[in-house]
Amino acid sequence: MSTAVNALGGQIMCSSSRETIMYQSSHFHQATPLALSLISDTILNPSFHPEELEAQRDAARYEIREITAKPEMILPEILHMVAYNGEGLGNPLLCPEDRIDAIDAPLMRKFIKDWYRPERMVVAGAGMHHEELVELVDKYFSSLKYTPVEAPTSSTTRQPTPGQQVPPHLLPSSSPSLVKSLTRAASSYLYPPPTPGSLATGSASPYTGGHRFIPDPESEFNHIYVAFEGVGIHDPDIYDLATMQVLLGGGGSFSAGGPGKGMYSRLYTHILNHHPQVDHCASFHHIYTDSSLFGLFASLLLYQRVSEAELDRAKNQLKSSLMMALESRAVEVEDLGRQLLVHNRKIPVSEMCDKIDEVTPESIQRVANRIFGRQSGNKPTVVTMGHEDVGDWKSTMKKYDVGSA
Fold this sequence. Notes:
Layout: H1 2-7, E1 11-16, E2 21-26, H2 32-44, H3 50-68, H4 71-83, H5 105-115, H6 130-141, H7 178-184, E3 210-215, E4 223-229, H8 238-248, E5 250-252, H9 266-272, E6 280-282, E7 285-287, E8 292-295, H10 297-301, H11 308-325, H12 329-343, H13 349-357, H14 361-372, E9 381-386, H15 393-399
Helix pairs in contact: 2-6, 8-11, 8-14, 11-13
């Protein structure tokens, strides 16, 4: 297979996230049949030789140790585990080192049998005719048998955790979920359209919030992550939250500056430019089907009204980053596949930009209160690593009316 891949003049890669596993190939057009046949053979007829498995176990141990030694890489993992109490999205993306030896050929074959099913798969392509791709998929994947599954009862963002009631004035004005409004619109990107709700997505991940301190006396810095549960990908407020992240921005204490570097973002103007002891400060937003995690600083800085100029700058930066990313063919095909999995259709860039343009200072403030306000009932997740813990963080949250500490 390595010889065949080298002959493509391109590359084949596999990557995984909390909700998907993706096989991707970049190659010359004439190599499309070979690339798809190699991916098909890898999925349908994998060969797990003992010596290769042992080599990958050793590689996994090394990579896990490397990641664990870097706070900026391991803390987001711990943040998810604490936020969702080790369930659903809280399951570790990294295999615990003491369980690596349990991964053998029978276990991997069972995983493939359980999860690599046609009703869970999307094949997307860019730079080729649709009919050509359909013919190749039929040739190389038709042996996969469809297994009917129970459709999910709702496609809307999951309801708040028990006891967490969001006041009506903090919810979006349009009650239908984003995915419903999108699937009603005509689309020339998808032919034929899949059956809506044909994929069982499983139960929603229970967000719990929480706190964890990882002592590290050798660390040069203290590191802190503070997050609140955001909204899922289908919620109309997702565009406000994405704009909010760009508005907050952030980065390192040193930047070369220049247009588009985010030097006018809130975290630079309010924190990094005034507090030299802060080496790095940035917002983050991890988005999933039924939930998301958003950084703390929005709660402290967005209770004040956002100016039109500041908001326009954030919206323009978000739209430009979106369109520039899609100039890459690899990003374009990945985006196509992920959107079909989530929305059952390809959302045009123009439609996304229209949604971003609809964001207003009032909607930003409403969503900030929905996610971080005391009335939201949203519990924070606090993870720290370094010489000392953050102390009485609950009192600090209450002092600034942040969440439900």
